Each structure stands twice: as C-alpha cells, then as structure tokens.
Amino acid sequence: MRNCLVAQSGGPTVAINASLAGVIQGAIDSKEFYKVYGSINGVQGLLNSRLMDLTHKVETTPMFIELLKKSPSMYLGSCRYQLPDYKEDDTPYAYIFKKFDEYEIDAFFYIGGNDSMDTVDKLSKYALAIGSDIKIIGIPKTIDNDLCVTDHTPGYGSAAKYIASTLLEIGHDTSIYPINSVTIVEIMGRDAGWLTGAAALARNTYNDAPHLIYLPEVAFNKDEFIEDVKAAMDKYNNVVVAVSEGIKDADGNYISATNAVEDTFGHSQLSGTGKCLEYIIKENIQVKVRSVEINILQRSAAHMSSITDIGEAFRLGRHAVKCAIEGKTGIMVTSIRKNNEPYSIDMGETPVENVAGLVKHVPREWINERGNNVTQEFIDYAYPLILGEPVVKYQRGIPDYLDISHLFPNKFDN
Amino acid sequence: MRNCLVAQSGGPTVAINASLAGVIQGAIDSKEFYKVYGSINGVQGLLNSRLMDLTHKVETTPMFIELLKKSPSMYLGSCRYQLPDYKEDDTPYAYIFKKFDEYEIDAFFYIGGNDSMDTVDKLSKYALAIGSDIKIIGIPKTIDNDLCVTDHTPGYGSAAKYIASTLLEIGHDTSIYPINSVTIVEIMGRDAGWLTGAAALARNTYNDAPHLIYLPEVAFNKDEFIEDVKAAMDKYNNVVVAVSEGIKDADGNYISATNAVEDTFGHSQLSGTGKCLEYIIKENIQVKVRSVEINILQRSAAHMSSITDIGEAFRLGRHAVKCAIEGKTGIMVTSIRKNNEPYSIDMGETPVENVAGLVKHVPREWINERGNNVTQEFIDYAYPLILGEPVVKYQRGIPDYLDISHLFPNKFDN
C-alpha cells in the first residue's frame, strides 16, 4: 500500500481546511493509502522537502479533523509558485516526480483556485507524458467563486455569509442619526462580482441596505453613480453602497487605479475603490460620507462560516479521494446543483483544463439593467450557500482554532 | 403612578441596547412606573416629540427584551445635539421640561459616553435650579472605554473580543506564505488605547500576533517604529502591528493628520493612521505591506459580542432604575471590580460631573517602556471582559436582529 499527498495554494478561505479535512478523512476511511502527507506551502513543500505526516496528526491530536474543518486560513500554508511549461523546462517536474517516488505517492490532491488548477493541469499532463500513473486531482476553493464548470466554489458561501451579515450590521450602524449619510463598502473580487452581489443577502423585512450594488461585470459610470446616490438619498437617510474592488470604467481601467484617480482628483496615491467612490461623493454631493473596506476579514472570519459551505468543502475533499481511487486524473471535482428548494448538490468532476486560467463572471442578466443592483436570480443562487451556522468553540474569549506554528520559520517539525 | 423616559446618544456599541433592555425590564419589574417611553434620537426626540411607548413594545413583540439585548447599534437612534449652558440660554431646557411634564416623566435615563454625561449633568443641574424633582441618571456606554470612575464601560468588552478574535484570524491569514510581510491593523480609539491594547488578547499558545502595539498614550516615533518592525522581522516572517487611529507624534500631531502626512510623503490627502504606517514601511523597508482598518465593524458586530459585556450592560440599566427609585439624580451608574479571578463586579454610582467631558487613559505603566506593547497588567484587566459567547439566532443565514425601521424617515409610528 502506498501514500497520498495533499497541498493547498492560492489565497485563504474559511473552507479550504475543510476540504483538506475531507481528503484526510476520505483517504483514511478508504483504507487505500498507508499515509496522508501534507506538503507545506503548496508544491514548494515538495521542492523544499517540507512534508508533514497528517495521518500521524489525526492519530495524536484529539479532535484534529473537527478543529481543522473550523479553522480559517490554510493549515498547510500556500505558495505563489507557478510551474513552467514542461516542454521548455522540466527541471521542477523531474524533481517533484522524484519526490513522489521517494514518498511512494499514488495520488496528489491540490486545493486551490484557477492558478492552482493550472498546476494540476500541467502536472497531470507531465505524468501522462512520462507514463506515470500517479493521479493528480484538483479541489476548488476561492472566496471569489469565479471558477468555471462547478456550480460554486468552497469558501464563497462563508465569505458571502460574512459579507451579508456585516452589511446588515453596517445597516444598523448607519441608521442612528436623522441626517443624510453615504457609506461605501468595498468588497473583494478583482474580476467577478459574486462576493459583492452577496451583499444583497443582507436585506430583510426592515433593512434595504445595501441600496446600491456595483459589480465589475458592468462598466462603472461616474455620472450615473452620482445620480444613483442622489436618487437613493431621496428615499433613505443613510445610503449604503456595496462596491467591488474590481469595478472598471467603460475603457476597462480600474476605478481604483492610480491614473484614474489622478485624472479625477489630482492625488498621486490612493488606496482602494471605496476610497475613490468616497471622494466622488465628497466632491459632488454635500453629504457625510465614509468608506469601509472589509479587506481580509471576509476571507478569514471562520467564527462566522456557513455550515453549508464547510460541509460541501469537506464532501469535495472526500470525493476527490474517491475519484483518485477510481483511477481518474487531471480533473477538478465540482458541485452540481440538483435542486434549489430544498437545496441539494451532487459531486461531479471535470477535466481540469476546463477550469485552469478561466474566470466565471456573474451573468449580465443577474444584474439589473441600470447596473446598480443584482436580480432575484442572483439572490436565489447565492442564498442557499450561506445557510447554517457551525458551533464555534471559544477558548479564553477568542475562537479555538488549530495550532499553525508549523508554518512559522524554525518551527517546522515533521 | 407616573412614567419614565430613556434615550441613547453618542456612537453605537454592541451593548447599548442591552442597557436599554435593562432599563425597560427594571422599570417594569419595579412596578413604580406606568409606562417606559423611549425618545428617538436622543434628547432631540423630546424636542421633536418623537417618543415611543416601550412598555407597549414589550407587551406586543415576542422576545422583545431578549432580541434587544443582542441587537447591535442603537434601537432608539442617536443625536449629536449639545445643550447650551442654561444660564445663557434656557430655551431648550424649558421645552424639554415641558415635555417631561406633558408625558408625566419622573425619571430620565440617558445612555451614552462622556458628551452624553455632560447632558445629564446640565439637565440635573437645571432641575435643581428650577426645583424639579425629576431624576436624571446617566448610564455609561462606549467602545472606547475612556470614561472615568467606572472600572470599564459597556460596549468595550464586546469590541475588545471582536478585535482580539479578528487579530487572531488575521494572524492565521498572514501566516500562509513563507516570505516576509507586514500587516498594519488600525483600531478605533481617538484619545485612549483601550481598544488597541485589547489586540494583545489575540495571543495564544501558538499565535504571537500582534507583535507590536502602538497606543495614543505614548508619543509615536517613526524611527523607533521602523527599528521595531525590522527587529520583529528577524523573529517572525509575518509581522502584525496593531495601531490606534489616535497615535500622535511628540509634538501632539496626529500621525494620520493631513499635515503630518504631507510633511513626510508629499501626499495631499490620505485616509487613516494604518495607511500612513503602511507608507512608512513601504518607503523604509523592502517588504510586502498591507493595512487593514477594522472600522465600524468593531462596534457593530453583535454576532460576536461578549456575554460578560452584554450582561453587565443590562445590569447597569436595571441599577439605574433602582437609583432613580431611591431618589438619586445627577449621577452615572458605574461598575466596581470586586475580584479578578473569579471575576466579579458590583454596581455603583458617581456624581456625573466626575465623568462629563473627562477621558480615562491607559495607565503608562500598563504599556511597556519602549511603547510598543501592553503589559500583563493590561491583559489581566481586559481579559475577563471578553469572556462568554451569546447564542445568536440566525434567520435566512444572517443574524436575526430587532427591526429598526422606526428610525427611518416617514416610518415613525408610535
């Protein structure tokens, strides 16, 4: 009996460790693998010989799998390493496959976004070229939800829940003064508006915030934006605007870009899109205005994850193991939505080349004509993904997450 | 039997509605008052005749008190209204006391920070001057924890818990890459460092972040800051810095102030202190740097309140009612720490003039000599205040808070 290997790559999400837990539990339950190894810092762990015995961790750490499912960020760390084309330079490939041999690896699971799927694609094609029968399987994750083929990506539901809940809390916070105000909330998503659109889930029987939503899928028009805010101020004292960091003007320039900001305000160095919209309001409407950037909190707030998201991430990890055992390779596991009410999904898979390097945008018809709100279709799609709350254990007043000190320098202990 | 009146003022906290709930429940339980009225938007509600019958709300809304205790922001709204000196202009006083008569008010409870305590002080002195025996009582609240006399203020513990938990999550988030990085986290507190110091509670058996903490109580020295960060980078790959928005240089200038920033970088308009420190690092150390501003989330995240804080806020509300019934006036109710382990407090009171307009700073000896960390005394003080988690009810994936539509224009319905 041989071993399997798992690694994580790309940016953190609240669900990526649940997929890792699913791989570990799936591999152990299958009894097809002797050990599950984890590569620290993505494929770089292979290049630097930093592997961790996860089977041993499960055996020696009480509640390891349960804690792992609920811990944010990436237990195995990440990397920004990109493989070259093996036809041009196969040095790292040769080294990685030598390591696979050394550790007697039968299957390699890589949890990540579309860059990581590019790695899966390249490694599986190299395996084919050299006649290796090692199985290389991708497991999706990204808060951005911008991977193709799969209905949605693990990490998205939790980030969407955090964003919706935070927008509701901002709605409460901004309602206290009987004067006009505008609050701009900048949300992540450089290329796609899935996260920003999820702000609409903050609306309930009494809260209409966010009153305006701007996604990267529609060209941003400054004059229309000013009109939109003025119109909203006729209806609401305190206008809340959700905006994606990735909005661009009709020429394709990021609104947050240095040049665009210089043109408009003569400032040389501004931070984000929210700040930029704040200045637009300041210069054009006499009203109190503030911008809030949710920043990395939206991808690390494991204290408010979606149990739907965490559960599916775990299932996808297990499914990846099943696929490997069935002999599949060069694939990414996917979610297939079977039903919306009651919501249910099936596990599936797709050749990873259908995903690598591609971006799934919010369909234009899920955004209203004016481009300042999402439609009911969007809400119906995103809503089931944020449902359910995990029981978060606290220790000394703060969440009890899994020790990650093996990621710190000079602390690596296999 | 006559009535009592309650209002809220200043900025939102997660616990101010729990104090409101304590007043309502205390007044009902005492059987000394026929009705509890709420004034919408602080004393402005009295000036504009916007009063709400809270006894009726309790009778007609299931779980009203329980929901109110767990809902963020301010159920009765806030105001920025400041009373003039009554010896110079008693017009608003005469109007307010006419309203007190009209609604047969025996006691007025004002929940707020030190500006609001100024209002309590002025109203109680005016009452004395005109021979009115209406009781005017202040109930403290502020996330800033900067009120004198009281051991701490309701709202602080919850904000501190949110900040500590968020810093732990940021610690996880920033640990994933095996490269150097610096993350600056800007925390509220214009005058006092209580909130920023609470970031130290994020540290646990494996997490040392935040590695540096800068409070407004110690003059900020840019050169020492650069040295501190470089020294921390020798020990940690990913350095996390917690900084108060209110830090100042040795001349008393805010680091975030336009001028200070212009002097250093030639930029004309920058946002916060975090951004400013980000630029200092960028210009002086070759390292990946990012700044995160927790912003209004730290005062509105009721989904992660401290049950200690919420419980004490409720108790203070009840205690205020008791004080009024005992004939006290011109006072603010206070917390008196009896014991730290096990932690317990008594309720007390102080003449409001001991609080109004004053600021309680973090003692210099609770900050280390270098001025880049808090001491164990600070941690021992703040730690009990963040303990305990409420059961937060969710509805459709987001927290189930109390309807605040009575704060919206054209929606006021008594």
UniProtKB/TrEMBL annotation, chains A, B:
Q: Pinpoint the site Important for catalytic activity.
A: K141
Q: Which InterPro entries match?
A: ATP_PFK, PFKA, Phosphofructokinase_dom, PKF_sf, PPi-PFK
Outline the extent of the Phosphofructokinase domain.
Answer: 4-323
Residue positions annotated to bind diphosphate are: G11
> What is this enzyme's class at the first EC digit?
transferase
Record-listed Mg(2+) binding positions: N114
Activity control, per UniProt: Non-allosteric.
* Site entry (Important for catalytic activity and substrate specificity), positions: D115
Which Gene3D superfamilies does the UniProt entry name for this protein?
Answer: 3.40.50.450, Phosphofructokinase domain
The cofactor required is:
Mg(2+)
Family affiliation: Belongs to the phosphofructokinase type A (PFKA) family. PPi-dependent PFK group II subfamily. Clade 'B2' sub-subfamily.
Protein name, entry field: Pyrophosphate--fructose 6-phosphate 1-phosphotransferase
Organism this protein belongs to: Eubacterium album
- This protein's encoding gene: pfp
